Every structure is written in C-alpha cells, then in structure tokens.
C-alpha cells in the first residue's frame, strides 16, 4: 500500500531546492563596491582630500597648475617620500624610527666630506654604508638592549644629530655643485620627469613589490600583527627587526645624498630637521596602523602628495610657515584618532 506524502512535504522540498539554488547564485557586488574594495576606503579618502585641496588652492592661485610649480611639488616631496616609505615598513613591523631625519643629516655631511676627499663614488658608497651602520645600531639597541623602539630611536635621533654637528663643526661641508653626478641628481630629468622623482618611484616600487608579493613582506605584516604567533610560527623576529632598520638607514642615506645634491653641500641639520615627523605623519595618514600589521605603500604615497600639495599651496597663498607645522601636527592627530575609532577600542582614557 502506497503512503501518500504528508501535507507540506512538497513545499518543504521546493523551498530546500530554492535555498540551494539561491546559495549557488552569488550576487555580484556593484561597480562602486568593487572599486572601493580594490582601491581601499583610506586611499579613496586621500584622493578626495587631494582633489579638494587642489581645487581650493587652484581657485585662489591659478599659478598652482603651472608645470613649473608641479615640478616644484614633485621634487619637494621626494626626500620626505623616501623616508615615509621606509617608515611605513617599520610601522607595519610594529616599531617606529624617529631617527631617520638625523641619519639623513649625518649622511648628507659624510657624503660631501668623503666626496671632497675621495670622489663621487666613494662619497655615495660611504654615505650609504654609514646609513646602514646607523640602522644596525638602532636594530641592535632594540633587539639586544630590549629597548622600546620609540625610546631607542629617540636617543639615536640626538646621537646621530650630534655626530653630524661634531664632524662638520656645525657648518655645511664640501661643495658638490660642480660634480656631474650630483648635478644630475638635483636638476636632471629622464623623459621629462626629474631624477629626484624617479628615485622615489623606484624605491617605492621596490618596497611595494617586497611587501605585496614576497614571503619577506608577508612575514613583516605577520610580525607587526602578532609577534608571539609569528615567533611560534618560526619567524626570526630579531633578524627582521635588525634587517628592517638597516634598510631604513640605507634609504635615509639616499635621502641624505639627495639633500647634498639639492643644496650643493653637506648639511648637518638644515634640510633634514623635522623629516622624521613628516615621515610618520605621511605613514599614519596613509593608513599605517601605529600598532603594526597594517599599512600600504600606495596609501603612504598619496599622503605624501597631500602633504606636499598642502605645503606648496599654503606657501603660494602666503600663509605663515609656522601654520604649516600646525597643520602637519593636526593631520597626525586626526590620522591617529581615526585609527583608534576604527579599531573599536575604548574611546575614553589613556590608550592601552
């Protein structure tokens, strides 16, 4: 005897089939959502901010859009951009380097002094070697001295600045204004783009590739995100800390060489003072989390452009230069506050 299906059985089967069919048909996100997911909310915010600043300044002063002024902006942000790129890597690692400006000043002086004594190649190589040594000192203090990176690099900020002033007697040293290589760095161009900008593009591209496509980059993110889990996973954290600071020192030395090229002499302080704050501000504005594990080179470069456009625009509009420092400090505070709000941590009290 055949038993008739219970009432509602057919409906249940149909509903189950419909659910399965619906699960298989994944709704594709809209074009705006796909653009946001690829570009990133942080980067889109920076692009909008740049567009607004450009529009406001351009309306006030049409000279802002001149080719000559755009070249000025590009070359002006190069040195800050180099330091911001490596500062981003250090921050992703979960650390900080406040000494990058002093390393740039020290290597600027040494590049000019060694150049005067032994020629161009020796000056460049010597400056980079000293930058790497400074980074090694920073890394060893942090790793073997168990010193907080902020305290360690705050100490070397003063030490490296003092060393630059001691060996230079507090004055500009050497003269590179007649050397073809330094002149090419300062005023040369490749396919119409200043060499200074090419240097930034190359360093930023290398940093992007390493962070995005290599195991080294993935490990840097992992260490910054959770150093305990990274250690248990077999990552040699000490090696990454020391290596990252050595690379930071090398790039800071390149920035120092560019300072020498632009000014025609080695500068112990002028041209490098305050660069560490600018680098940290750009990295934070670009989305690098000061607690580590998060950040992008593209975001940092957009923040560098924003800072460069803002500084240039304020200069064109005749704003007192002291207000530029105020604006820069305010942007850093805003960037950090936004990070805290996004983190979901408590909003009142001393940060944990």
From TrEMBL:
- Identify the keywords attached in UniProt to this record, alphabetized: Cell membrane, Membrane, Transmembrane, Transmembrane helix
- Subcellular localization(s) per the UniProt record: Cell membrane
Q: Where are the transmembrane segments?
A: 35-60, 72-93, 100-118, 124-144, 151-168, 188-211, 240-261, 297-316
As for membrane topology, the entry says: Multi-pass membrane protein
Question: Can you tell which superkingdom this protein's organism belongs to?
Answer: Bacteria
State any single GO MF term: transmembrane transporter activity
Q: Which InterPro entries match?
A: ABC_transp_permease
Query: One Pfam annotation, family name?
Result: BPD_transp_2
One GO location term (cellular component): plasma membrane
Recorded protein name is Ribose import permease protein RbsC
What is the organism of origin for this protein? Microbacterium lemovicicum
């Amino acid at each position: 005897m055949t038993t008739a299906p219970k009432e509602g059985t057919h409906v249940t089967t149909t509903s189950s089939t419909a659910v399965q069919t619906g699960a298989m048909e994944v709704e594709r996100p809209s074009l705006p959502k796909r653009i946001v997911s690829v570009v990133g909310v942080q980067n889109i915010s920076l692009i909008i901010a740049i567009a607004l600043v450009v529009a406001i300044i351009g309306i006030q002063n049409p000279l802002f859009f001149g080719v000559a002024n755009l070249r000025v902006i590009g070359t002006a942000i190069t040195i800050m951009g180099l330091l911001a790129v490596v500062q981003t890597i250090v921050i992703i690692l979960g650390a900080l380097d406040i000494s990058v400006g002093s390393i740039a000043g020290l290597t600027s002086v040494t590049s000019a002094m060694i150049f005067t004594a032994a020629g161009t190649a020796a000056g460049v190589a010597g400056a980079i070697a000293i930058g790497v040594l400074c980074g090694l000192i920073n890394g060893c203090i942090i790793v073997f001295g168990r010193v907080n990176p902020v305290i360690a690099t705050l100490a070397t900020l003063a030490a490296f600045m003092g060393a630059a002033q001691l060996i230079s007697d507090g004055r500009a040293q050497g003269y590179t204004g007649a050397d073809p290589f330094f002149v090419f760095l300062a005023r040369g161009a490749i396919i119409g783009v200043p060499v200074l900008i090419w240097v930034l593009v190359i360093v930023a591209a290398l940093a992007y590739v390493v962070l995005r496509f290599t195991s080294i980059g993935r490990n840097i993110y992992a260490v910054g995100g959770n150093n305990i889990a990274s250690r248990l996973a077999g990552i040699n954290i000490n090696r990454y800390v020391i290596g990252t600071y050595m690379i930071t020192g090398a790039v800071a030395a390149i920035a120092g060489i560019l300072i020498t090229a632009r000014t025609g002499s080695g500068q112990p302080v002028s041209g490098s003072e305050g660069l560490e704050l600018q680098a940290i501000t750009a990295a934070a504005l670009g989305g690098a989390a000061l607690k580590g594990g998060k950040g992008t080179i593209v975001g940092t470069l957009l923040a560098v452009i924003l800072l460069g456009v803002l500084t240039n625009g304020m200069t064109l509009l005749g704003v007192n230069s002291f207000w530029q420092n105020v604006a820069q400090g305010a942007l850093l505070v805003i960037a950090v506050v936004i990070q805290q709000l996004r983190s979901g941590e408590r909003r009142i009290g001393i940060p944990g």
